């Protein structure tokens, strides 16, 4: 089950209806940004599959945020929530890279349907891994190949070592290895694995051992899925 990252830009901090998404969809992670700086930081460090802009802003502020979101997270569709009296702005915003403008009150079921469609089409694929790393290496293919080969060797070994450490209840060792793994995938910008590694590391750090195995299994699945793409990725680059 791959993580689906949703960014909610909502300055009023009344996002109770959106928490239903995480409750109904355990693999949907909702990040809330309460101001423009928080939104930009989130966009810099996380690859989102959907961005919801639900706040009362001046037209130029909305345009600025949408442009920033499109530039930093070009794969993520943006949906702008509008009050009834703002409906005249719909045509203006949809000229931008905005998938839709929805009128309030918010229909959570509609958002769920949209997420369902996105989940079927936006899983991280070989070309996305390649492009993310090429962006990181400034299109240095040779360096990208070296990094990919290193990851294909190290990540399975680290998962194996974490598994052994957890079986033996050596949680400190498991935390140290998870921290290294998290750093590697985070440096590369692979948000699917990064999110899962963060969840496991955070769980171990706070000694929440009852949920450790579930987080480990999710991370292991993400790593296995990534390694399964080894030949396709390397054949494309070489």
UniProtKB/TrEMBL annotation:
Presence of the UniProt keyword Phosphoprotein in the record: yes
Name recorded for this polypeptide: HPt domain-containing protein
Which key words are in the record? Phosphoprotein, Two-component regulatory system
Its taxonomic placement starts with: Bacteria, Pseudomonadati, Pseudomonadota, Gammaproteobacteria, Methylococcales
UniProt xrefs under InterPro entries: CheY-like_superfamily (IPR011006), HPT_dom_sf (IPR036641), Sig_transdc_His_kin_Hpt_dom (IPR008207)
MF (Gene Ontology):
protein kinase activity
- The segment(s) forming the HPt domain are 140-238
> What GO biological process term is on the record, naming one?
phosphorelay signal transduction system
Indicate yes or no for the key word Phosphoprotein: yes
PROSITE patterns per the record?
HPT (PS50894)
Which positions carry Phosphohistidine? 179
């Amino acid at each position: 089950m791959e993580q689906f990252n949703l960014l909610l830009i909502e300055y009023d901090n009344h996002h109770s209806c959106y928490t239903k998404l995480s409750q109904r969809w355990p693999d949907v992670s909702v990040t809330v940004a309460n101001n423009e700086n928080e939104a930009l930081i989130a966009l810099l460090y996380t690859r989102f599959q959907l961005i919801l802009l639900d706040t009362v802003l001046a037209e130029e502020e909305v345009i600025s945020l949408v442009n920033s979101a499109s530039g930093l997270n070009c794969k993520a569709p943006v949906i702008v929530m509008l009050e009834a009296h703002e409906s005249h702005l719909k045509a203006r915003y949809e000229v931008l890279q905005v998938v839709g403008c929805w009128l309030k009150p918010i229909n959570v079921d509609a958002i769920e349907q949209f997420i369902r469609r996105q989940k079927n089409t936006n899983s991280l694929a070989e070309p996305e891994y390649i492009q993310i790393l090429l962006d990181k290496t400034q299109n240095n293919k040779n360096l990208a190949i070296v990094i990919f080969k290193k990851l294909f060797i190290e990540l399975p070994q680290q998962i194996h070592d974490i598994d052994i450490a957890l079986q033996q209840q050596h949680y400190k060792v498991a935390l140290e290895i998870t921290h290294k793994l998290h750093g590697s995938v985070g440096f590369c910008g692979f948000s699917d694995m990064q999110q899962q590694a963060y969840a496991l590391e955070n769980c171990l750090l706070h000694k929440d051992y009852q949920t450790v195995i579930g987080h480990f299994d999710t991370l292991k699945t993400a790593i296995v899925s990534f390694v399964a793409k080894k030949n396709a990725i390397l054949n494309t680059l070489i």
